[in-house]
Amino acid sequence: MADDSEPIADLVLAYKILVNEAVLDSFGHISSRSVANPEHFLLPRAMPPSLVEADDVLEFSVATSQPLDPRGRRVNGERYLHGEIYKVRPDVNAIVHSHSQAVIPFSLTGVALRPVIVQAGFMPLRVPNFEIRDVRGNGRGMQITDKERGAALAKTLADSPLALLRGHGDVVVGSSVKQAAVFAAYTDINARMQAQALQIDRNIVVMDAPELFEPYEFDINRPWENFRQKLISDTARARIDRAQFGLDHTQKPA
């Protein structure tokens, strides 16, 4: 019988990695769809990302975005961001919401975030930008704190792997926690590279459709382990299985 020990372990490690890579600030969060019950998702309680451990992870209903058992913990107010995306995207098994300082400027200007570096080939040619004012009504704030806002964000995301939230960062989705975390890191890197190029010349060369890649063509283990090794001891680093790196189609002789 499937259990959630592995996705929870990956979830905790993803928090550590994205904090270390300066992608997550004090308020970002990551979730995983439950493998034991795909109609549930896993999300830590409301707390600083750098302190997340396995015991902090709570289980939520996809249908309601409510915790099954909060265990007396304060739950994440933006849980609807996760629940509403999982509800309409059965292909998504993990979600990263960050307040990347490199990404936010692209949500505020007329300059679209575009894929410009080779590792960002998972991105669409133009990243959609969610506008909270379209659905806020008489409410206040910019957070995704109810089902209506979450559903509107999911609609903006559509079938894309990521979307911006005006003045609020971005949301990156993936088929696994590893994939979503790695793509979130490269979204941040791509934004920094695009911004630096624009400072040199407003006419920059962005990627075109033939230069994009399918997720299966990108070796997630390689950057995941590269990010992870920055967090571990030399003894643990020596035990890493180096046979795992590389994709089959890159290893075949010409």
Secondary structure layout plus pairing:
Layout: H1 5-20, E1 29-33, E2 40-44, E3 57-61, H2 79-88, E4 94-98, H3 104-108, E5 129-130, H4 147-157, E6 162-165, E7 169-174, H5 177-200, H6 221-229, H7 234-238, H8 248-251
Parallel strand pairs: 5-6
Antiparallel strand pairs: 1-2, 1-4, 2-3, 4-7, 6-7
Helix pairs in contact: 1-5, 2-4
Describe this structure in words.
Helix 1 runs parallel beside helix 5 (177-200) and helix 2 (79-88) crosses helix 4 (147-157). Strand 1 and strand 2 (40-44) form a beta hairpin. The protein is α+β, with helices and mostly antiparallel strands and 254 residues long. The longest helix is centred in the last third of the chain and has 24 residues, at 177-200. It has a 7-stranded mixed β-sheet with strand order 3-2-1-4-7-6-5, sandwiched between helices. It has helices spanning 5-20, 79-88, 104-108, 147-157, 177-200, 221-229, 234-238, 248-251, and strands at residues 29-33, 40-44, 57-61, 94-98, 129-130, 162-165, 169-174. It has a single domain, classed as 3-Layer(aba) Sandwich (L-fuculose-1-phosphate Aldolase). The protein contains 8 helices and 7 strands; from the N terminus they run αβββαβαβαββαααα. It is globular. The mean pLDDT is 93.
